[in-house]
Amino acid sequence: MQLHCEVCQAPLRAEDVRFDLALAKCHVCGAVYDLVGRKARMPTTESQHGLAPHRPRVARPTGLREEENDQYTVLSWRWFGLNHVFTALFCAAFFTISCTVMVPSVVDAPLAVWPFLLLFLSLHLGVGALLTYWALAGFLNTTRVRVNRGEITINHGPLPWPGNRTVPAQGLTQLYCLKEWSRKPDIFGLSYGYRGPSFSLLALDQQGNKVKLLSRIKNKETALYLELVLERRLGIEDSPVAGELADRTGGA
Fold this sequence. Notes:
Elements: E1 17-18, E2 23-25, E3 32-34, H1 45-48, E4 65-68, E5 73-78, H2 82-108, H3 114-140, E6 142-147, E7 151-157, E8 165-168, E9 172-185, E10 191-205, E11 210-217, H4 220-234
Antiparallel strand pairs: 1-2, 2-3, 4-5, 5-6, 6-7, 7-8, 9-10, 10-11
Helix pairs in contact: 2-3
């Protein structure tokens, strides 16, 4: 039975396979596969005629870097966007006004109201500090997803940010993406309006439990490309999952 590359559909040759490492590397496109648990499949009559549901190919999105060798695959992308520039400018104006207007007003206020004014000023500056940190993270941070035969490691940095994790790959049976709608908070901490769609990458384990790997991915092309590369690297055969982002009728 013949194994085919899931990226370019070229047949894998005997010299493409490293039995000592249980890895194969496509001689056409260079894609690396973990062969542990992978089964060779003959194309069916339906798939040959395009009748069976299939995943369309996903090109690597612009801005997504990929490093690959026999040991691991690393995918990374920067956070930077125009929204971080606008937020940085807003923070500069925010602290300028706070230091030139609000702080002198507190100093000149009667002592009896100082505790209330200091509390308000602390909360006010705290919000500004959080916005500034978010803007700096956008300028500096990169997300790195590293996958090998044993684990998936996700790191956001260099500025600390929630979501860093290492997930054992053994026992994962399927990866899939979901589309989510996220809201943005107003100045009172309430939610209003939709900010727009974001995308999450999840996995299923052998018990059918969901394992969230990444959330708030900016575009669906990045999410789908991550799913395909990680499944390929881990030797997981792609299967449909109810409600997933991928469209198997000919479009993503």
